[in-house]
Amino acid sequence: MTDTDLPAVLREQRDYYAARAAEYDDAYRRTGQYDRGAETNASWQADMAEVTLAFDALALTGDVLELAAGTGYWTERLVRTCRSLTAIDGSDETLSVSRQRLGAASERVDYQVADLFEWAPTRVWDACFFGFWICKVPDARLAGFLRAVADSLRPGGVICFVDKAAARSADQERIERTLDDGRRFTIIDRPRTRAELVAPFAAVGLEIEVETIGSRFCIGRGTKS
């Protein structure tokens, strides 16, 4: 991907998730175009249950920041244990779904819309989390994004993420996705190996461990040094 076309792809990615908001949770439910049949769906759900359990065990507390908060699958869990929660996403459409999901609990969440490739923190939090987002960050923007994450954490603050697992380095970053109405979008899809995650996090002072969950997912966790 060239520096010239990257901004256009990132805009298209943002538009895709805004347009996909109403059908996004089909991916979690394994319905619609994400239905792969009973056996594959059950395997996916088993892996998802395991990574969710690992996430819940962290029980993030204090003032928590969630980036790429989406439709609220993880927000709903974070709000149970934290003192305060700031949830940022590039799409108001997905955050609207999150508000509906959380119901009364959404009043405890500070929802904000921001382009995460331009966002810079104006305060610090005790913990930062993002789910299925790091694979949407292209290599050219990874260092800048992680610097913003590091700046958002107090010393000793906790970093945690859930993402797709990768056994080997990807040979391309872009993928085409289609919505239920047939519209097509080009977005970033760059799952990273453990080594490809640990090194750039460490470069900004975030010491993490990455654990593969099942055959599909990974969870990363650590602290700001």
Please give a structural write-up.
By secondary structure, the chain is of the alpha/beta class. The chain has one domain: Vaccinia Virus protein VP39 (Rossmann fold), CATH 3.40.50. It has seven helices and nine strands; from the N terminus they run αααβαβαββαβββαββ. The chain has helices at 6-19, 26-29, 38-58, 75-81, 92-102, 139-151, 194-203; strands spanning 63-67, 84-89, 109-113, 125-131, 153-164, 174-178, 184-188, 206-213, 217-224. A seven-stranded mixed sheet has the order 3-2-1-4-5-9-8, sandwiched between helices. Strands 6-7 form a two-stranded antiparallel ribbon. Strand 2, helix 5 and strand 3 (109-113) form a beta-alpha-beta unit. The mean pLDDT is 96.
Number of strands: 9
Share of helix among residues? 25-40%
Cα radius of gyration in angstroms: 17 Å
Biggest β-sheet strands, sense, barrel: 7 strands, mixed
Task: Walk across the major sheet and give the strand order.
Answer: 3-2-1-4-5-9-8
Topology at a glance:
Elements (H helix, E strand, L loop, with lengths): L5 H14 L6 H4 L8 H21 L4 E5 L7 H7 L2 E6 L2 H11 L6 E5 L11 E7 L7 H13 L1 E12 L9 E5 L5 E5 L5 H10 L2 E8 L3 E8 L1
Parallel strand pairs: 1-2, 1-4, 2-3, 4-5
Antiparallel strand pairs: 5-9, 6-7, 8-9
